[in-house]
Amino acid sequence: MTTPTTTSAAGTALRHFLADDDLTSAEQREVLELALALKADRHSRQPLAGPRAVAVIFDKPTLRTQVSFATGIAELGGFPLVVDGNLARIGVRESVADTARVLGRQVAAIVWRTFAQSALEEMAAQAGVPVVNALTDDYHPCQILADLLTIAEHTGGLARSGPALAGRTLAFVGDGANNMGNSYLLGGALAGLDVRIGAPEGYQPHPDVVARAEAIAAETGGSVAVMTEAAYAVAGADVVATDTWVSMGQEEQAAEREAPFLPYRLDSRLLAHAAPDAVVLHCLPAYRGKEITAEVIDGPASVVWDEAENRLHAQKALLTWLLDRAGETG
């Protein structure tokens, strides 16, 4: 992907977070370390003191994203300006570029949960403030930061040096072509994980994303594998993750997806192939009896509630890190 290069009002090169690999492996580690520190002391950083506003725009349904960003921005000393995308209709009533120029004159950062990755990139090119991807059809990088933080907490912490989670294996089973599949590949490779995607034919990651992840893994010491057999993907894994079979905007495909995805349901039989102390992730909302069974998501291996909480800490760390790089914190 092409991340725009722009400058802040202070003349400092801006950093955005539009996809997982907008951070280097070392930078990802910095964000995760900061997230752990902010979780231990929630009000230790106040980069938005004033308070300064952050625009948080939702074109798609939300619960965890809205609550975690609104709470996190307030804890950073700021003010979350939540914008209803159905009313703003960015790109319809007003161009993305004009909207970006207006918002960038008034807020410290922009968080956008929307459909097209290209619209997010256009926002970043014109805003003059850091722009954060709160989910697009292509990537869900904030969720992956929270997942990596959760993995660190439950599988031995951050590595002492180098990639944050080197030596551990993550298996994702389900729709490998969705935004979670893409972000697990890129974010997991940056963290030094051995990432396996188990997905049916026709629902596997785009080759371009796999190639980007393979290039990252070659530098971090991780690995990337895409396969069709769910049990092979899960075999010996330290972390097993899944997601809904029907992402937002795909509701009309729900019936046709049932049969191909049924062998990828995360139940106790499939989880038995993982490491004995493996943990289970799900970004939520979960559909018990579909992609995951109740006995697994409510069972002892599940860490999904820690994962949900960690959206707050990971996103606070990310915003602080981006504002630091923009020269907007002391």
TrEMBL record:
GO biological process terms held by the UniProt record: citrulline biosynthetic process; L-arginine biosynthetic process via ornithine
Gene Ontology CC: cytoplasm
Compartments (UniProt record): Cytoplasm
Stored InterPro entries: Asp/Orn_carbamoyltranf_P-bd, Asp/Orn_carbamoylTrfase, Asp/Orn_carbamoylTrfase_sf, Asp_carbamoyltransf_Asp/Orn-bd, Orn/put_carbamltrans, OTCase_ArgI
GO molecular function: amino acid binding; ornithine carbamoyltransferase activity
Protein name: Ornithine carbamoyltransferase
Enzyme Commission (EC) number: 2.1.3.3
